[in-house]
Specification:
heterotetramer; A alpha/beta (353); B alpha+beta (366); C mainly alpha (588); B: 366 residues; alpha+beta; globular; C: mainly alpha; 0% strand; binds adenosine-5'-triphosphate; binds magnesium ion; ion transport (chains B, D)
Chain lengths: 353, 366, 588, 366
């Protein structure tokens, strides 16, 4: 067994206590698939295209396989390239994926408009529609879970009283030149963070942060790497990927600040090909099931399904999606405010691009 | 195989190297192409071989038209069975001597063994059999040239073009190979075209000599014809006739030199288009000045020993300086000595300066 | 002076003919290779994707399958007025020019010493010139950020350990230029090496005899004769550097240096992505590169660069004398900076349990080192599958690429085919289109093609063929220009078909050049990342993408580093065959 | 400048091309090196120019030792101021004709303007000034050769090495250039070494001729000396003496040919080491057979017209076949005619077959 499947099976979260496949698929009492669907799905294979982080997707598919026994195959690439590919393949009637997952609401919306997503209601649909921002276009696509964005520090370079606890701690002059940020234009999650910072602390906050002369990165991965090595001491970070790095042994610790966490979407939907694929349907059912959502939470995502008991992510406890502490950058926000936000951010950080 | 070239032209960009050339080489004939450096000899050969796309004209080898500008027909080189020894040798530096020579045989599907034997035989002819296994670029200049020659000889083509194939060889080797070449050419009835700057070679190898000037053939005839009756003063000069003088006026059986009060007798009355007289140095007789007697008086300006002969330059009193080549022997004149110079009337050639267009074969042969 | 006049009078009358008629320019030999089918193939491979890019630049919508229309607009040109474009362009130009010069210098010197001199351990120095090719620039840049970042860079840590008050800052213009220059030097090296090993020493000797010192000889004869290779590699290297995104991303952005590629990346990354505008920039780049290609053609057309002639080719080594060891030192220095240090950094990252380190003494702590990551990588199915796919794709596309490049190069430089200028221009187009944009073009092309290639390894091979056409052509072209045409013509006269003559004379003479081209294409295919990203599927995973994913994860740095090291090793092993073919001399 | 070569050796791998060669070229002297293809002429020149590392010996130019194998001293080419015209031309294909010729001047720090003027002047000498701006690869073979010559002439070196510099030129141009070269060489007191396969050229250009055989000098003397008294039968053959016969026995002032009942008169008693007799074809006189009279009777086997002369091969009755070159003129004999052949006693050279070691200068001059 590969290290990934081992981690997926037990390290991240112990396997569900009870998986019953005698009559369809039932996990911990929740029916994921009826008998007909499940039997068909076992002969089928999920084809998943994802713009989400590779490592978390690897964990997720390994877990899915372990819990359902259904084969799954992943093609991952950065969201912008993914979107280009999906739209092109779809246009040429060659879209192979049954499920497509993206991290940008605007991209998901575009998929919906072009018919890449077709309406599908998983068993938990009624539950899901109780929450805001989870079901879109009557189920054409769904929020699988949310990504949280906070900050973190190098746990070997920064210790004891030095550890920042709130967003305002980042403005401390001692971090001058030791901060890292990814520029706001680099993707939906960072734009969301900037919007959150403006909303919560005012534009002034950005200006002051900019005056700290942080190191500006193009991608999260390069920044994370720099943080692990201590090139920078503190950085604003995506929670899930950073947690993965920490588990993998990087000397990084995350902070879940009292004064708020920025959140962004992780959306998925069934494609026309997925309509013909029982396995794809089971994958969506499973993702939105309690078991799937818990596993996401354990990996460092914020579950989208309302009403679940909190699941810790290792030593951390992220706020629930509906809590005050969790600031979502909704698709409407994204459409209306992205450009402005980026411009403001660029000005504050004297960044061109 | 007969080679017929009609109105052939070739231009490199704006420069015309071959300019309406007409030439027929009879089957089994050996033509020597003579012409000064840059007159288009190599270019003509490359056209025959199919290595250049002529800008006009027609070439036929035997009954096959291999190139015709008007119809656009052009047979690729490798189908023409034309052998060529390049002026630049073009030995393949990455092959051994033997591999170079075996190549054309292998191309003719000769088996490895017989090809090797044949190649060794030809290498023997050019005196290189002991170097067969040497890399072709580890040779001296003359050795490379012999490899190039051997390679084309091994091929036994129907037409053989030789572009100064012996220029880097010593006199003796050259003579041997010249004899060998002539032998093979006559024995196999090979049609061949040969460029050389060596008059001995031209005379020894040629059935006919073609004089090329400015991209066209200006005289064509047997060696004796061309030597005895050059068609123009410029050809005469090129054939080594150094005594060429402009004519002032003609009067019956004599011409007066322009600028000098000297008249030369001629064997027959000078024709209308005559511009110059030419006298071969070998035909000029020089004696120590016995004051009376026929001929012109003068002073020896230069006297060069040339082995079997002596070359004089004699400045005639009130006249031009004449070149003369006399048999060496006792009593050679030295610089400054007075001399008497005699020019027989048969030796005085009265000629136009240039030949206008390429003359038809018959005209020249006359 | 009478002789002077008389010889002058002999000058042949240069009768200028009326300009050659169009008729006359019929293409002649070689009929067997007549250029039309070739032009069609190349145009199909290159122009269809490029056409999509062009359409994207001037159409309202992105012309992807299913929504191709011809509503044209010029509004995307507005991208050039965006703030920062000018600055970014300027930065890119500065980086491009200086790094190109650096690459040419390193590549040129190493090519010269290995091809022509008695430098100690020649084979080893040859390998030094080549090796950075095994390190994708993306990995190289990351390794250098590990080494040279101002706070936690290993070099700086080492310096602090030694008590030296000196900080290396790789996040600077100088750093970017150094890394780009070092990692693109192998291109220059390969192209120039094959060209220089074809030198006819008589030409050089003539310079010495006529009073030129060794330096003057190099300046007046050796390097000018290698001009096709030098210009060719300069063009390649410059456009690559100009478009290089990973190095900019890793080293320039943290140093607040904006470049055009990062700018294009941001356009593509914007939401919704601004593909049209990226395409506009690509079109402008295409125009620039075509102009440069044309200029290069012009410069080269007027002269001849044949060094291999039928009057012999005596390989001779120039004695370096006192320069032997300093130049060897130079090569070692390059080895250190381009290979040893980056690889050491990667190995260290792969085996260190914690990436954080304040002093090298940390490494002696128990448990600080663990080689497990290598084992993990080697046991992973994903890695093994992608490695297999990579090798298959790389070998196939390098073989096909070399063949196509040879055919194109031969047609362009050896025949009078009417279309040869066009053919060369078309083949150079992919050079100008940034990979990310070209990747989209290829994706659209192979999705709409009514052949079921999409989703197979074959489509990757075809895409690589298209993308690497310019590299292949430049590699072949300089060698073709070095060999005298008479040699091949002669074989034809001796009864060989043109194709046979090419195979038995031209190809062996160009062996070094062909092997270098093959090697270059092989390595490029192993490294190619952006284009396959648009075309791969889970079935056709290749190694470059797997590694990219590992790095993108951020967290899996240890595996990523381990994988990179193994990746380099695979490339090294793979390069063995073409290197064997390419070393040694031409003469028997 | 005087060039002194002592015991020079050069090996390519296991093959020895130059083998203990000794030669002194006096200041301002012109030496012509004659020898058959592959005997090591080019190699020797390359050693003098500093292009090859000799495997032994010593070379001094003027007072400077430029190479000494024992001390390991070796002055690089560009400091020797030795010009060389390469057998392979080595014209730089990427430069124009003018750039080729200007190069050595620019290397001597001559300013652009004067360098150009000088180059144009030299190009004028070789008749190429009208092609100055042409790319050097767009020339004919002979034109390239002239560029190579002009390049070395423009350099005005202290020692000039010419490796068959005129081999691709037509007779007339060659003669002009030969005169020009000799003129410059004498005017400037240039020390020069010249390889040629053309005897006329050798005789016209040489102060002394050095015969090279198998990597060493076997005879050295003025043209007249070498021509009149070749040191061995093989040199005589090489010098174009085709009538060489082994000696059977000697008796006073006469030698008997081996295998034939024929005795030739000699001018002086034959020396002890005599192996062969040699008779120059030019010295053989051929008349139509007037049955009585001196000389030997025979039949004309071959008769070749050679312009100013006729070459015969006469098969002597009961004797060998003799080559003869006679002045052309009326009454030439034709094949099959009976002839009478006369050989003057002074023309009979009695020689050893080979010269053992390189002889000292004095020995040969005797
Ligand atoms: N690189 C080499 N390797 C081995 N042998 C060589 C090499 N170069 C020349 N030779 C041999 O050395 C001998 C002398 O060569 P060199 O070029 O000096 O002859 P040469 O007298 O100039 O002859 P030629 O009149 O034909 O030019 C030749 O027999 C040749 O085969
Ligand atoms: N590639 C070229 N471009 C332009 N002109 C050329 C080219 N090749 C040859 N020429 C010119 O064409 C003319 C004829 O060249 P060609 O090689 O046929 O001469 P040639 O008669 O063989 O002379 P040589 O006896 O010197 O070899 C020359 O004046 C030469 O300068
Ligand atoms: Mg020629
Ligand atoms: Mg030689």
């Amino acid at each position: 067994d590969s290290p990934t499947s081992e981690a997926a099976r037990n390290e991240v979260l112990p396997m569900p206590a009870k998986i019953d496949t005698s009559n369809g698929l039932v996990i911990d009492g929740e029916r994921i698939a009826d008998k007909e669907l499940y039997e068909a799905a076992k002969k089928d294979k999920v084809v998943l295209y994802s713009g989400s982080g590779k490592e978390s997707e690897d964990l997720t598919i390994a877990r899915f396989k372990a819990e359902t026994g259904i084969d799954i195959e992943l093609t991952r690439m950065p969201t912008n390239k993914l979107s280009e590919r999906v739209l092109s393949e779809h246009g040429a009637n060659q879209l192979g994926a049954g499920v497509v997952r993206v991290t940008d609401p605007l991209v998901a919306q575009q998929f919906a408009e072009r018919g890449v997503y077709v309406p599908y209601r998983p068993p938990s649909y009624d539950e899901l529609s109780k929450a805001d921002n989870v079901v879109f276009n009557d189920g054409q696509y769904l929020t699988a879970y949310y990504s949280a964005y906070t900050f973190g520090y190098n746990s070997q370079a920064v210790q004891g009283a030095d550890v920042p606890k709130t967003w305002s701690d980042l403005l401390d002059p001692k971090w001058k030149g030791k901060l890292g940020v990814v520029h706001a234009g680099a993707g939906g999650t960072v734009t969301a963070l900037a919007a959150f910072q403006i909303d919560a602390f005012g534009e002034n906050y950005l200006t002051k942060l900019g005056a700290q002369q942080p190191r500006i990165f193009d991608t999260t991965s390069v920044q994370l790497e720099a943080l692990a090595r201590g090139e920078i001491s503190v950085a604003t970070l995506g929670f899930n990927s950073t947690y993965g790095a920490q588990v993998a042994g990087a000397p990084i610790k995350l902070v879940v600040p009292e004064d708020g966490v920025s959140g962004s979407f992780n959306l998925m939907g069934l494609t026309p090909a997925g309509e013909q694929s029982p396995a794809a349907k089971v994958f969506i059912n499973w993702t939105m099931s309690k078991a799937g959502q818990k596993f996401a939470a354990a990996q460092g995502f914020v579950p989208a399904r309302p009403g679940l008991e909190p699941t810790p992510t290792g030593e951390y406890q992220l706020p629930a999606a509906d809590s005050k502490q969790f600031h979502l950058f909704t698709p409407e926000d994204a459409a209306a405010r992205s450009a402005d936000t980026i411009r403001t951010w660029n000005k504050a950080f004297h960044f061109t691009g | 195989m007969q080679v017929t070239i009609t109105n052939l032209s070739l231009a490199y960009g704006r420069f015309t190297a071959v300019n309406g050339l007409d030439l027929t080489i009879a089957d089994g004939e050996s033509i020597v192409l003579l012409g000064q450096s840059g007159c288009g000899k190599t270019s003509t050969m490359r056209c025959i071989a199919g290595l250049e796309e002529p800008t006009g004209g027609r070439i036929a080898i035997g009954d096959t038209v291999v190139f015709d500008h008007d119809t656009g027909r052009s047979v690729p080189s490798f189908r023409r069975n034309v052998g060529m020894v390049f002026q630049s040798y073009a030995v393949w530096p990455h092959k051994t001597v033997l591999e170079n020579v075996t190549f054309p045989l292998r191309m003719k599907k000769v088996k490895r063994g017989p090809a090797r034997d044949k190649a060794m035989e030809v290498l023997g002819l050019v005196g290189l059999d002991h170097l067969a296994e040497r890399g072709a670029s580890q040779l001296s200049g003359g050795q490379m040239q012999r490899v190039a020659l051997a390679r084309s000889m091994a091929m036994e083509p129907s037409v053989l073009l030789l572009d100064e194939p012996l220029s880097n060889l010593d006199a003796r080797l050259r003579e041997d190979l010249r004899v060998e070449l002539r032998h093979i050419q006559q024995e196999r009835g090979l049609t061949s075209m040969y460029v050389t700057h060596d008059q001995q070679e031209a005379l020894a190898l040629a059935d006919r000599i073609a004089i090329m000037q400015g991209g066209r053939i200006t005289q064509l005839g047997t060696p004796e014809e061309v030597y005895a009756a050059p068609a123009s003063a410029s050809i005469a000069k090129f054939m080594g006739v150094t005594n060429v003088f402009a004519i002032g006026s003609t009067s019956g059986n004599g011409v007066e030199l322009a600028g000098f009060p000297i008249a030369l007798p001629t064997a027959s009355p000078a024709p209308a288009n005559a511009d110059s007289v030419a006298v071969r140095p070998e035909d000029v007789r020089v004696r120590a000045d016995s004051t009376e007697g026929r001929g012109f008086a003068g002073t020896v300006a230069v006297s060069v020993y040339q082995g079997s002969s002596v070359r004089y330059q004699v400045a005639l009193d009130n006249g031009p300086t004449l070149d003369a080549v006399c048999p060496a022997g006792p009593g050679a004149l030295v610089r400054g000595e007075r001399a008497r110079v005699e020019i027989p009337a048969e030796a005085v050639l009265v000629l136009p300066d240039e030949v206008g267009a390429a003359p038809a074969k018959e005209e020249v042969a006359a | 002076m009478t002789t002077m006049q008389s010889t002058r009078a002999q000058a042949p009358p240069e009768a200028p003919l009326p300009a050659p008629s169009a008729r006359r320019r019929r293409w002649r030999r070689p009929r067997g290779l007549s250029s039309l089918p070739l032009l069609l193939v190349v145009a199909f491979l290159v122009l269809v994707p490029a056409g999509f890019v062009l359409l994207a630049a001037f159409s309202v919508d992105i012309p992807r399958p299913g929504s191709i229309n011809f509503d044209l607009t010029l509004q995307h040109l507005a991208v050039f007025t965006e703030p920062g474009v000018l600055k970014a362009t300027l930065n890119s130009l500065i980086i491009g020019v200086s790094a190109t010069l650096l690459a040419l210098l390193i590549g040129g010197v190493l090519a010269f010493v290995t091809a022509r001199t008695d430098i100690p351990l020649r084979g080893f120095v040859f390998l030094i010139g080549l090796m950075p090719l095994f390190l994708p620039s993306y990995v190289g840049a990351l390794a250098w950020s590990i080494l040279g970042s101002p706070v936690a860079g290993l070099l700086n840590i080492g310096m602090r350990d030694l008590g030296l008050d000196f900080t290396v800052n790789i996040y600077s213009m100088g750093g970017v230029v150094l890394v780009m220059g070092m990692f693109y030097a192998p291109y220059a090296f390969l192209l120039m090496h094959s060209s220089m090993s074809l030198m006819n020493p008589d030409l050089e000797d003539a310079a010495g005899v006529h009073g030129g010192s060794t330096w003057q000889m190099l300046r007046n004869v050796t390097f000018p004769l290698a001009l096709p290779a030098i210009l060719g590699s300069a063009l390649l290297v410059f456009t690559h550097i100009f478009e290089n995104f990973p190095v900019s991303q890793v080293l320039a952005t943290p140093g607040q240096i904006d470049t055009l590629p990062t700018f294009i990346y941001r356009l593509m990354n914007a939401s919704p992505s601004r593909g049209n505008e990226a395409a506009v920039m690509a079109v402008v780049l295409v125009i620039v590169v075509l102009l440069v290609t044309l200029g290069q053609r012009r410069i080269l057309a007027r002269r001849s660069y044949t060094t291999v002639s039928g009057k012999g080719l005596k390989a001779r080594r120039i004695s370096l004398g006192g320069w032997r060891w300093p130049l060897f030192g130079f090569a070692l220095g390059y080895l250190l900076l381009a290979i040893i240090l980056p690889l050491a950094a990667l190995v260290l990252t792969a085996i260190r349990t914690s990436p954080y380190m304040q002093s090298f003494s940390d490494l002696s702590a128990p448990g600080a080192i663990d080689f497990g990551s290598f084992g993990q990588v080697l046991r992973s199915d994903l890695f093994l599958d992608s490695a297999g796919n990579s090798v298959v794709v790389a070998v196939a596309s390098a073989v096909l690429g070399t063949v196509v490049a040879f055919l194109v190069g031969y047609t362009v430089y050896r025949t009078r085919a009417k279309a040869r200028g066009l053919l060369e221009g078309v083949s150079m187009v992919p050079l100008a289109i940034p990979a990310i944009v070209l990747g989209m073009g290829l994706l659209w092309t192979w999705l709409v093609m009514p052949v079921p290639l999409y989703g197979t390894l074959a489509v990757l091979v075809i895409a690589f063929l298209a993308v690497q056409m310019p590299q292949g052509l430049r590699g072949i072209a300089s060698s073709i220009q070095s060999t005298e045409r008479d040699l091949e013509d002669n074989a034809v006269l001796h009864g060989a078909r043109r194709s046979r003559a090419v195979l038995s004379i031209t190809v062996p003479l160009m062996r070094v050049g062909i092997a270098s081209t093959f090697l270059m294409l092989l390595m490029l295919s192993m490294r190619e990342l952006t284009v396959p990203l648009f075309l791969y599927t889970s079935e056709t995973h290749i190694l470059s993408i797997t590694i990219f994913d590992q790095f993108e994860n951020g967290g899996a740095l240890q595996q990523a580093a381990a994988m990179s090291v193994i990746y380099c090793l695979i490339m090294f092993v793979l390069s063995y065959l073409p290197r064997r073919l390419g070393s040694g001399s031409i003469t028997p």
